[in-house]
């Protein structure tokens, strides 16, 4: 009987201990999941009903020089933009206001990568539509 009560107490205690292996879900923005998201650079991501993706930089990062790349599969070869080339340099790089949704992107590609200074700070994966 004593053995059973000890076993019961052990199971109760195990139930209250969070598991270290539990993984937090990636943030979802409309039809995209962020598989990379750097909070030091971004305040947020917004996707409207037409598939337009907007980002908002942290107030001290509005001068970030943004380069966008798109692909159909994770790790696949980059696709060319409609203007030619695989790197799309944002025209908003010339100056952004603080706390404003900016750098609108609309693409049929499944993956959108946002780069600054050679570092990937946002990687979106299309999960719907």
SS-derived structural category: mainly beta
What distance lies between the first and last C-alpha atoms, to the nearest angstrom? 58 Å
Strand content: 25-35%
The gyration radius over C-alpha positions equals 21 Å
Total E-strand runs = 9
Which descriptors would you attach to this protein?
6-stranded antiparallel β-sheet; mainly beta; 129 residues; 1 helix
Describe the structure.
- The chain has 129 residues and is mainly beta.
- It has one domain.
- It is built from 1 helix and 9 strands, in the order αβββββββββ.
- The strands form 2 sheets. The chain has a 6-stranded antiparallel β-sheet, with no helix packed on it. Strands 3-4-7 form a 3-stranded antiparallel β-sheet, with no helix packed on it.
- A hairpin with a 2-residue loop joins β8 and β9.
- The longest helix is centred in the first third of the chain and has 15 residues.
- The chain is globular.
Helices and strands, with pairings:
Blueprint: H1 2-16, E1 28-29, E2 32-37, E3 42-47, E4 53-57, E5 67-71, E6 88-89, E7 102-105, E8 111-116, E9 119-126
Antiparallel strand pairs: 1-2, 2-9, 3-4, 4-7, 5-6, 5-8, 8-9
